[in-house]
Amino acid sequence: MDPVISIQSLEKTYDNGFEALKKVELEVISGEILALLGPNGAGKTTLISTVCGIVNPTGGKVTVGGYDIIHDYRKTRQMIGLVPQELHTESFETVWATVNFSRGLFGLKPNPEYIEGILKDLSLWDKKDTKIMQLSGGMKRRLLIAKALSHEPTVLFLDEPTAGVDVELRQDMWRVVEKLRQNGVTIILTTHYIEEAEEIADRIAIINNGRIELVERKDELMRKLGRKQLTLELREPLQSIPDNLADFNLELQAEGSRLVYDYDATQSHTGIAGLMQALSEQGIAFKDLATRQSSLEDIFIDLIKESS
Fold it and tell me: Residue ranges of the ABC transporter domain (predicted)?
């Protein structure tokens, strides 16, 4: 399938010499949800702003729908909706007026039925006549999404869309995101809530120090890099790990009353059977055990540590 966004050797160096983007390579597939993850200052917002035409690149090439973002700016910008991090919405305009105005900025004819549908999907319909300055922070965040969708984009960028939003509003937003995906909209999001990316994203891209470190389907990433952990609650605490257990990847916790064993769940031999035999030979008994699969957040933290 042809990518809807193609980023090739993209660079951005600011006047002070800071390299925000370093030869970024990324393709976004039409209709997918791509989560762009990275620590603060990694280049997420610069990358999004460049694709959206807000920041001028120093080098490289970006196309959206086959059109170059510089030479075909009007065409690419009309295909894109952007929900920024900042809430610049201290306005005396009403919700209805500002969303309709956003649509008009792209030269589209008024479509009250479409705008009504957006506001209802985002639970803003009962606020349509409310002045923006009177909205709560969560409602202003919803309004930003409504404005981004007003011109019917085929690609939607969500830059920290749930920052400062309560759980109920967050869940509503993800329902809207899923509905958009079902309607063929391609969605690229950044989020500090990595469990959200784990739940809704099709693919994960990790950026650090201005470089894309990894792009992978979420399920494949979890399969290849995910690890499991076996926790044993001991009947009697240990002062230290016995020498004959040194070959196992063990950690002693909870003042010696807990043994934690990390293993690769994708391997045919996990080592658990050997560990159990070694524990029995040492007379080490346990009263409970539990396993835990590493989360996307665990994988993300490990990858960032490796690339820093």
Answer: 5-234
Over its C-alpha atoms, the chain yields an Rg (Å, rounded) of: 24
Tell me the C-alpha distance between 28 and 4, whole Å: 6
H or E stretch covering 157: strand 155-159
Structure tokens given for 85: 């991090």
Q: Which amino acid is at 249?
A: N
pLDDT of residue 162: 74
Residue of 190, 228, 195, 198 whose CA lies nearest to 216 = 198
| pLDDT tens-place string over residues 105-136 | 998 999 999 999 999 988 899 999 999 989 88
Q: What is the DSSP letter of 95?
A: H
Order of all β-strands in the sheet with 59-64: 19-29, 3-13, 59-64, 67-68
Can you read off the two tokens belonging to residue 271? 């080592």
* Alpha-carbon span 263 to 182, nearest angstrom: 38
Of 221, 302, 229, residue with least CA distance to 270: 229
Question: pTM for the complete prediction?
Answer: 0.75
